[in-house]
Amino acid sequence: MKKLVVLTLLLAVATPATLSAGATLSAGAMLSAAAMPPAATGAQGPAPSWQEAKVAPDVRQALESLAAGEQLPVVVTFHQQADLARIEAATRAQRLEQVVLTLQHTARATQLSFDAVLDKQRQERQIDQVTHFWIFNGLSLSASAQAVAALAARPEVGSIALDETISAPPELVRAPGELALSASEWNLKMVNAPALWQLGFQGQGVVVASMDTGVSLSHPDLVAQWRGGTNSWFDPYGEHPTNPIDLIGHGTATMGIMVGRDAGGTNIGVAPLAQWIAVKIFDDRGSATSTAIHLGFQWLLDPDGNPSTPDAPHVVNNSWRSGSTDCDLSFQLDLQALRAAGIVPVFSAGNTGPGDATSVSPANNPEALAVGATDALDQIWLGSARGPSACGEIETLYPEIVAPGADVRTTGLYGTYQTTSGTSLSAPHVAGGLALLLSADPNLTVAQQEGALLQGAVDLGPLGPDNTYGQGRLDLLAAYDPSLTPIQLSITKLDSPDPVRIASTLTYTLTVTNAGPNAASLVTVTDTLPAGVTFGGVFGVGWDCLAAGQEVTCTLSGLGIGVAPGLVITATAPGSSGPITNVATVSSYELDRDPYDNAASASTLVMYYTYLPIILK
C-alpha cells in the first residue's frame, strides 16, 4: 500500500529529542515523542507536540495504519519562499524571467543545504523517489513513518499534508440532442465574443494553457492552433512525452470552448486565433497526484527551461477540483507564482450545487478566479457550486463570475462534437475571453484583467453581487469597453414571383429584425440588384432610400428591439432567361453580436414563359 502525502516545511527553531536505543514506537507515537517546547504553566490540557501539529489529521491517520516497510509519497514545502511581491518589470518578458529566476534561486538556496538530510534518510532506506520543485520551495519523496517523524522534527518543517490523488472530472453531462448549427453557437453570442471579433480581436498573439486530461491533436478544430515544438506539451507521468493526446475527452472539450473554430459548421471557440499548449495532469487511468499537478504548474512558468525566453502561456484554464468541499490550500503557492508572472489562474467553480457553501478547492483559493455555470436563459445551472467560499474570502464572492455551461456544443474525441453541461465548460469561456482582451492589450496586469471581467459582467439574480452568480455573467464587449452597446440585427428577403417571366415586374420584400439587447441606430440596408434587373421603386415607412445604378440603400434612424417596417423594392426582370441572385445586407452604428445573419439572398429563375397548372374536370 502506498499513499500520497504533502509535506510543508517551515523555518522553525527547536531541538529534536533523541529516542533511547532500541525503542520502538508507532507512527503516531513517533510524532508525539519528538521534542516539544516547554508547556506553559497552568495549561488547560495536553497540547499536541509542535511536530505533530505540523502533520495534518489525515496524514496522522494514514501513518497509524502504515505497515512496517511501507512508505508514503510526500511533498515537502519549505517555509522560506520567494518574495514575488517585490518584483518590478517593464515588460511581460522581463516579469516572467524575474519570477522564474527568483523562484529558482530561493529553491536552490534552501534545498542544497537540505540534501544532506535526504542523503542520510536515503542511505537508511527511509525515503525514495525525490523530486525537487521550484515553483514553490519544496520537494516530493516517499517516506516511511520513521522518516516522516524525523522530518517533522526538523526545524525547517512546518506542516505535512496528504499528497491527494484526485480523479479526472466525471464525464460531461450530454444533452439528449444536438443544438441546431448556426454561424456562432448561442453561448458565444451570449458572452459577446463575435462582437470583439468584429473589432479585430480573435486571440491572435495569445497562448492559452490547459491543465486537464490532455487534448486531442487530431481534431480539425484544434490542430492548427497548437503552438507546437518541445515547449507546448507536458506529460508529468511520461506516458505520452512527445505529442498531445487525450484518452478521456474532458480536456478536448474545454479546449474547444477556448480556441475551437468552425470545422463542424459553427463557431464554437471564444478565441479561435489563439494558440494553445497543455499539461496532461491526469494519467491514462484518470488519476492525478499533487506532485504531478505541482510539476504541471511549474512547467507552465518556463516550458522550454530557459527563463530568458517568454514562452509561458498568458492564461491557464483549470477545469478540475480536489476531493473535498473544504478549504485546501495545497496549490496556493503555485497560484501565487502564476499571478506574480501576470497569469490569471481560471478555475471551474465545481458541479457540487445547488446547495449553499458548496465551493471546491483550488477554485475557492483567494488566488483563483472561480467561474460558475449558466444556461441559455441566463439562469444558474442547477449543479453550479454556490458560496460562500470555504476559504473565507472576505473580499470576494463564490463564484466570482458565471458563464455559459449548460447544453454547450464543443469538441469531442475522434474529431466529433458533443453538447454537454458543467462548470468545466464555463471556465474556458472566461479563459478564452481573457485571450481576446489580451489580444487587444497584451500589457494588461492580472488586476486589470480580472477587473475588466468583473466590472463588465451582467448582473443576474438579486440586485448586486451574490453567492450564486458572483458579479454576474461574462460580457466580453462590456469588459473591453463598457461604452459599447451591442445589438443583434438580422435580415430576410423574399422574391415574388418565382419563376418570373422575362421583362416583367419582380418584387423583393426585405424584413429587418433587432433581437437586442439594445436599440440600434443608423440601421442601413444595402440591396444589390442582379445584372440586367432594372430598378423600379422602393417603399418603406420611416426609411430614407436612395437608388444608384444597381444598388439601393435605405437608412432608418433607429430601431428598438423588434421588427422594423418592411421594405419593398420593385424592379423589372431581365430580358433574357436564366437564374439571378439578389443580395441584401444590414448594418448599424453599434456592434452586432453575431454578424452572420446580417445578409440575405434570393435566387429567382427568369423564364420566357411561365405556366399555370391546368385543372381537368
Task: Describe the structure in your own words.
It is a single chain. By secondary structure, the protein is α/β, with parallel strands linked by helices. It has three domains: 5-163, no CATH class; 209-480, Peptidase S8/S53 domain (Rossmann fold), CATH 3.40.50; 489-607, Immunoglobulin-like (Sandwich). 22% of the residues lie in helices and 25% in strands. The strands form six sheets. A seven-stranded parallel sheet has the order 9-10-8-12-13-14-15, with helices on both faces. Helix 8 (250-259) runs parallel beside helix 11. It is elongated. The N and C termini lie far apart (92 Å). The model is unreliable at 1-29, 32-47 and 175-182 (pLDDT under 50).
Features:
Rossmann fold, six-stranded mixed beta sheet, 617 residues, 25% strand, elongated, single chain, Immunoglobulin-like, 3 domains, 13 helices, alpha/beta
Query: What is the fourth-level CATH superfamily of the largest domain?
Result: Peptidase S8/S53 domain
Number of strands: 28
- What's the CATH class of the largest domain, please? Alpha Beta
- The count of helical stretches stands at 13
Largest sheet: 7 strands, parallel
Mean pLDDT comes to 87
**Content-based structural category:** alpha/beta
Q: Terminal Cα separation, in Å?
A: 92 Å
Q: Helix amount, in percent?
A: 10-25%
Number of domains: 3
General form = elongated
**Largest sheet: spatial strand order:** 9-10-8-12-13-14-15
